Protein: Dihydrolipoyl dehydrogenase
Organism: Rhodoferax ferrireducens
Amino acid sequence: MSKNFDVIVIGGGPGGYIAAIRAAQLGFNVACIDEWKNAKGGPALGGTCTNVGCIPSKALLQSSEHFDQASHHFADHGISVSGLEMDVAKMIARKDIVVKQNNDGIQYLFKKNKVTFFHGRGTFVAAKDGGYELTVGEESLVGKHVIVATGSNARALPGTPFDEELVLSNDGALRVGAVPKKLGLIGSGVIGLEMGSVWRRLGSEVTILEGLPTFLGAVDEQIAKEAKKAFDKQGLKINLGVKVGEIKTGKKGVNIAYTDAKGEAQSLDVDKLIVSIGRVPNTIGLGADAVGLALDERGAIVVDGDCKTNLPNVWAIGDVVRGPMLAHKAEEEGVAVAERIAGQHGHVNFNTVPWVIYTNPEIAWVGQTEQQLKGAGRAYKAGTFPFLANGRARALGDTTGMVKMLADATTDEILGVHIVGPQASELIAECVMAMEFRASAEDIARICHAHPSLSESTKEAALAVDKRTLNF
């Protein structure tokens, strides 16, 4: 006997669980299917983000940041520390507690919003009764609408699968039991830089191999250069323009043969290797063929601008479709799809989706980079303000970086904001809101910001667009 629902969501990550909750708020009878398991085999809602991505990585980054501060910066404040040690097992245990709190929080939200949860893999069986039949283990479900939010998986190097002991994906990188003496990373993207930062702070000798000739090519070039200077100073070894060759694993660790940017053969021996070369859409076991759900050449589900697939009343959101693989992008698409099902006009503006790298210094941006504006031939004005000239940053003891604002040369509309420095992940929110309301740089420059605060640097960057900074 099938169980019938108005909306069935496949996937309980940020996109899926948010879509399920919003659909329930709109009065639909909703089910959510998710197969993540915790250590005891029970449900672990939250997807990659909560279990092996955003949340646990931030927990480890925070722990390692505390250790780094105690090791190198407390003395500047008159705080003496002796016998400092890092208990890696306890750090990992704390991370696991943070993850569980988030898992449990989503289960609570499902109960609060009357979302029916099924633990297992959701698979399409056939179109049925004006909707779609799916199976979850022994259960049979029928939904009028189906939202696919199955996320993504880490991309492995050809011929070098993840064993999660020596060759690690983001999953294994979050479960390392002791500080590796030497750690290698392939890929200098978000995951690579964040995990590299964690273990460098705790004492690892970290070497990053990046195939591209430029560092953080998607980031504004001026900001990327500022960030790399900081990472070089910290001791992260970042090798650009390399071509990775054979990778061998053995009892003593991992050997990576590669060609450097000069074309010279090199060899790197490490205790652990993290591979961070991107992610691929996850449609494993979905049963797309059973109902004719269209996939593209990358394996992503094909959708239009409203997240509609080629099948009536089947939608897809998040990492499994086009667009940036970001948890908050998935959340916004989840809300928008639920509202579209209800006949409303859900809205997602890709131009104002913020990006963040949670290193130290943090890197955050929204909108277009200077190189993109130059490439498009758009006339613009730029203003920058260094944290070195910000009173709150001086008091924090963290004056690395700057705020950079780009505005249209004629209308003064803000086209992009790029930040490298303390709490960039929080500072970018004001800029996202400003761009969503199509504010001008002058609007930000005229708004009163608290003193002393890091946010004054945003105001000063806006003033700099008109060449009238007050504190630099």
